[in-house]
Amino acid sequence: MSPELEVELKRSAPAPGAMAIPSLSRRGWNAALEIALYCFITMLVAIVEFYAGGFPGPSNWLIGLVIYALWSLNAFRRSTTPSAAFVQLAVVDESNVAASFGRMVLRTVARGTVLYALPILVFANNQIVWIAMFAAAAASVAFMERGRAPWDLIAGTTMVESYGSEATESTGPLRLSDLRVDGLRQRQNQRAARMLQFAGWGAIIVSLLIVWVVASEAFTFITDDDFSWSLLNVEGDRRGWFPRRNFYDIPTLLVGTLWVTGIAMVIAGPVGLGAAIYLSEYAKPKVRRIVKPVIETLASVPSVVIGMFAIFFISPSVLTLFFDDIGSFSVLAAGIGVGILTIPLVASISEDALRAVPMELRQAAYGLGSRKITVALRVVFPAALSGISAAFIVGISRAIGETMVVAIAAGGSGGTLFELNPTEDGQTITAAMASLGAGTDQVAGSGIAFQSLYFLGAMLFLITLILNVFSDAIVRRFREAY
Amino acid sequence: MVAITTELRDQLRLRRSADTSGQIFRGLLMLALLVAFASLLAMILTALTRSWPILSDRPLDFLFSNTSQNPDEAGVFQGIKGSVMLAAISSLVAFPVGIGGAIYLEEYAGDSRFSRLVQVLVRNLAGVPSIVYGLLGLAIFVQNLGGITGGRSVISGGLTLACLVLPVVIITTQEAIRAVPSELRQAGYGIGATQWEVIRSVVLPSAAPGILTGTVLSVARAVGEAAPILVVGAVSGFFQTGTLSFLEQTQSFFTALPMQIFAFTKQPAQTWGAHAAGASVAILLVVVALNSVAIWMRARLDQKLRK
Fold first, then answer.
1. Hey, is the C-beta of B54 within 8 angstroms of any chain A C-beta?
2. Is the distance from CB of A331 to CB of A426 less than 8 angstroms?
3. Residue A269, pLDDT score
């Protein structure tokens, strides 16, 4: 060991009872976290105050002070040594020299103001006062603590925690008491488990609410006096979906949904599967690294944008080449749009399935002298078939549930006649729901039209649920295969 | 043993080029990829060319003007504001609940009946069409809790979107946590850490890039969704917020970028088509930017794991 290093080690070794000082980046992180948490709490108070119509008695300002006091108190409580409790006030620089009493008070006040003024800036009515206080406090803190890292200036109570880990000397044999977890850490551990379980309940609550809401309102629709089952299957020339005139012809919507889903899968199936096979079997890693993000970008395109694309490009520029009398809105255009939307989904799930096929199978086939196409089509494809069919089912489920593309591109808002021709206007279950939902204000009073929204929702929910459970079962079986 | 001579190599190459069906198949696969690429490209080009009258004339004015009945003055500022608030509210609710729930499922629950139930529910929730979440929002947040949320407000919309992205956040977080090697956890326990300490200082830091990727993607999803907030009651016409304060605005009318695109496409295309395309360009920029961040983070994660 070089003499310089020895001296350095001696100097940096903590004296008994001294506190370990965390690194600069650690302190910066603490400061950011503290400010974020503080802003969050103050914002919550302001929001509660707003929605409760103002608290009686104390003003916003007093509440902020109370929060700051509680916050500091908590920090004191959590610090492991009594001296650490005052570090927030006392530690001045890296050499652990205590500050004078006046400086401690000043720093506490200034930090409190900075921390409190930041969030209140957004919410208080007299913003100018707060901006002035903020500026003054920031300036005083900056002046007092020249030469320190900038984030140390606004870091407050969290630093107690990080400074508070007292440097203990670990000499002698390990004793049982060294291994015992102290009460504070144990309490923390239990509290964390409770809170996390509470979060786990979130998913359960959302699921139950969906089922309950959709089922109960659909039940209201069916049991209403104005309702009869014949409304759901109107025979005759005026067959169609016109909720405002009490025509709820479900086959009209089913035909639209089937067309859109069918057209979408005719496009998304081959294209998605082809892209998946290319990516997993043919593409070199370099090509993959470029192609994959592009496909993922296509996946993230919002469906309204695809709807816009359908009426501005697919309809006028593509479909008019093949159909002379096609309007700017048609089920066909919507189906193609939904198909483009479903391509990345089918591609990514199929690709996962193809890549899950063990390399040994491919190598065995190559060893027998197979061509690449034989390996891809006769070895890898059959092995991944269950995963690929799951991808198709998920794609179908997504295409059935897709709303905005159809609402924009298929026309037929308000209502639509029974129509088997996909080059005409039409509606799907989802688009009918969207147009009912968009006009809920007008619909709410008129008979059972509003509840028909939930009836459609229940139908849609059941269809997609069955498809999802089905694909899930397939995927699980195929996972067990390898 | 046959030595691989240049002659043999040439022969093999010849055979490969004579494999017509293989070449055709490869060509078809490329074609599939090309279709996907071409549709993305055509979409971007359509959005750009259709919105050119606005992009060339008043790009900033379009971004920072409120809704209006006059096509020359109408802009998407209220939509941008609404989308930002929706994304913020849904993130504030869905991230803590989703990430917390995922940690619970992966680290605490084990293989209990409770955890299996939640797993099944989450997977099915992820497949529920987004418009059904709109029904949930309409019934619960707008009608039952209308006193707190203000009815058809940005709060109701944000909470609805939070329910929508919750399963996505849970699933991606679970995957990220599952990818943390169990040796790391055992090392943590080995030096005497409690379970919570292991989670906080071992599991979460190593899973952070994966979790972040998932959350960024779910924000992108929330920004792009229109169907649920359409049902919850985003305004598709013109409205003014006047002099309402920030918090009062959270309880009043709102709209969002995708909602405005939908509204523009319902107007005559001659006058309002450029607006729809212009708003599409704006939302594409946001979503593609978020997506690139997620892809970049995942690439970094891959690199780190390889080391």
1. no
2. yes
3. 92
Among the partner-chain residues B100, B194, B265, the one whose CB lies closest to the CB of A196 is B100
Residue with tokens 């190593």: B206
CA-to-CA distance for A362 and A382, rounded, in angstroms? Answer: 12
The structural domains of chain A, ordered by start, are: 3-167 (no CATH), 217-481 (1.10.3720.10)
Q: How far is A69 from chain B (nearest CA, A)?
A: 25
The structure tokens 């479909």 sit at A319
**Minimal C-alpha gap between A110 and chain B (Å):** 28
| Alpha-carbon distance values, A203 to A207, B116, B118, B211, B296 (Å) | 6, 12, 7, 18, 29
Facing residue for B118 by CB, picked from A204, A278, A301 = A204
Distance separating alpha carbons of residues A155 and A21, to the nearest angstrom: 14
A50-77 tens-digit pLDDT: 666 655 544 555 666 666 666 656 555 5
Q: Which of A150, A128, A130 is nearest to A141 (CA)?
A: A150
Q: Looking at per-residue confidence, does A164 or B180 come out higher?
A: B180
CA A141 to chain B, closest CA, distance in angstroms equals: 30
- Provide the chain B residues 69-128 that lie in CB contact (below 8 A) with chain A: 96-101, 103-105, 107-109, 114-115, 117-118, 121-125, 127-128
Q: What is the Cα–Cα distance from B23 to B16, expressed in whole angstroms?
A: 9
> Testing the interface with B: which of A304, A309, A314 to mutate, by most B Cβ within 10 A?
A304
Distance CA A28, CA B81 (A): 30
N-term to C-term CA, chain A = 55
CA A354/CA A348 separation, integer angstroms: 10
Alpha carbon distance A376, B31 (integer Å): 17
Rounded CA separation A206/A208 (Å): 6
Domain with residues B74-306, CATH architecture: Orthogonal Bundle (1.10)
The two three-digit tokens of residue B140, written as one number: 């619960």
Helix, strand, or coil (residue B61) = helix
Would you call A301 exposed, middle or buried from its count of C-beta atoms within 10 A (0-12, 13-18, 19+)?
buried
- Per-residue pLDDT band at A154 (split at 50, 70, 90): very low
